[in-house]
Amino acid sequence: MSKNASSSLLVDKYFYTHQFPTMWCPGCGNGTVAMATVRGIDRLGLDIDKVIHVAGIGCSSVAHWYTTFTALQSAHGRALPSATGIKLANPELTVVVTMGDGDCIAIGGNHLIHACRRNIDLTAVVYNNFNYGMTGGQVGPTTPLESLTSTTLYGNIEPPVDICKVAEAAGATYVARGAIYYIKELIDLIEKGVRHKGFSLIEVMTPCPTVFGKRNALGSAAHMWKAQKEFTIPVKKARDLTPDQLKGKWPRGVLVDKDLPEFTEEYAKLMARAQKGRAGK
Fold first, then answer.
1. What per-residue confidence (pLDDT) applies to 278?
2. pLDDT tens string 42-100
3. SS3 168
4. Residue 109, phi then psi, degrees to nearest 5
5. C-alpha 261 chain-centroid distance
6. If you compute the radius of gyration of the chain from its CA atoms, what whole number of angstroms results?
7. Which of 1, 35, 53, 228 could join 71 in a cystine, given CB atoms 3.0 to 4.6 angstroms apart?
8. How many angstroms separate the CA atoms of 1 and 253, rounded?
9. Please, are residues 96 and 51 in contact by the beta-carbon 8 Å criterion?
10. How does residue 9 score in pLDDT terms, banded at 50, 70 and 90?
11. Beta-strand (E) ranges in 191-249?
12. Torsions phi, psi for 79 (to 5 deg)
């Protein structure tokens, strides 16, 4: 489809409409992230039968209920090793992984580190709503300081994890952060991530009005969406700010984009060397 394909055409092609309405709460940004992901994939003109959607557990994971891609739902925190197995078995497949912040960086944190350092050609879209929204609004690794959750009734005292910094430090070759308020930019970031040869991570700031927002008196869903204009800033602008000026702000855009050897390609070379060595005996 064209870059400006209508939403109705995209819905007909990529979504199981008989599954609508979705289970997501009113005002949740997860549906917007799902559509942005579909648009990013559609722009590349990929064979839909060669796109695999791997999901973890949580609010974000149910995106695969609604999309027509071949899908695999893993155990909690195990989406990346499951996706790694798929990509190794058939490197020609395009593998897109959707995870929540807790799924990705809490129970799945170890897997994230090793997927990044291997630089395997997967695209991870991480929905970050700052809490475990599906299971009652518990504190998570990305929950901001002093925030109220069902397990931090008097405020969170644990410093939050910056998922993008962890991915960068672990060796991911494409790292980006988007926000649902800036939907066109988000689509671009996801498209670039899927096109990139190597491990790509796109963190998406998405509000949870029903649980996290209500508990922290963050206002209506519309207010939470608009608030992203204030606490996210373009990467280029962020680079000119001091650490004090950056407090409470999240750089938005491409944070890392570099070329390094990709794991499945290197693995194929290794297998060829091994087979050559065996044949010479």
1. 73
2. 999 999 999 999 999 999 989 999 999 999 999 989 999 999 999 999 999 999 999 99
3. helix
4. -60, -40
5. 22
6. 19
7. 53
8. 25
9. yes
10. confident
11. 200-205, 232-234
12. -65, -40
Q: Report d(CA 231, CA 246) in Å as an integer.
A: 9
- Six-digit token pair at 63? 């995106």
Q: What is the largest CA-CA distance in the chain?
A: 71
Report the distance separating Cα 126 and Cα 133, nearest Å: 14
Structure tokens at 64: 């695969």
The CA distances from residue 203 to 16, 83, 178, in Å, are: 25, 18, 6
CB 104 within 8 A of CB 124: yes
Task: Give me the numbers of helices (H) and strands (E) for the chain, helices first please.
Answer: 13, 8
Structure tokens at 274: 């091994």
Cα distance from N-terminal residue to C-terminal residue, the chain: 52
Residue 71 CB contacts under 8 Å (≥ 6 apart), including other chains:
52, 53, 54, 55, 64
pTM above threshold 0.85: yes
Q: CA-CA distance, 13 to 229, in Å (whole number)? A: 32
Q: Which domains does the chain have, with CATH numbers?
A: 7-279 (3.40.50.970)
Identity of the amino acid at 18: H
**What is the rounded distance in angstroms from the CA atom of residue 200 to the CA atom of residue 80?**
12
* Secondary structure class of 250 (helix, strand, coil): strand
